[in-house]
Amino acid sequence: MDAAIVTVGDELLVGDTENTNATWLCGRLDDRGVTVRRVTVVPDEVAEIARVVNEYHAEYDAVLVTGGLGPTHDDVTMEAVAAAFGRDLAANEEAADWLAERGYSAEDLVAETTHLPVGCRPLANEAGVAPGAVVESVYVLPGVPAEMEAMFETVADEFEGTRTHTVVVDVDEPESELLERFAELQEAFDVSVGSYPGESVRVKITAASADEAARAAEWVRERSELVDSGLADSETTDSER
User: Which residues belong to any copy of the MoaB/Mog domain (predicted)?
Assistant: First the structure.
């Protein structure tokens, strides 16, 4: 499964707010074997949100949109997602009933709080008020981190891919000196390789099988100067192609 994440908010684009939602979602999707192909930040503008959602919906298996839910003037995400699918916004009885069960009457809320794209599947906001929604393969989640995380967990089982295996080797050499070895490694093994320099170079080796990842990691260890001769194995996930 391939996915895209769209985070909405002017505050993200000017640096007032750190985009922790995207980081959290990437981690949770990766845990479930989903490959995140795009992370995009868009302003609180209907046309921009709708354009990106429309494009990503056509290209990827799932799109997760977070931010811009609620009744205030700059909460336009639901309107934009509805526009992307050529739908209207309308009062959603299921969302209203859910809020009523939590003690919110119509008089307590701005009317637009429960206005969702026609034909959507509403998502309850267990940590807040503004409901989310699923429109075809587009998941619309709140921007408040605690609310977004709680809502995602209610649909997490809908995101699945094929688990892969990763081994990280810490190499005590300049990254530039490892390039030829990386090329040889990928010729010898069916793996992907990432390198992340810092005080040492973290070489991340990922394969479809644990054995292949372990054998490739051992190949690197035998041919490199290591920070620590011990291997730290950790499983990650990748998408099903």
Answer: 4-163
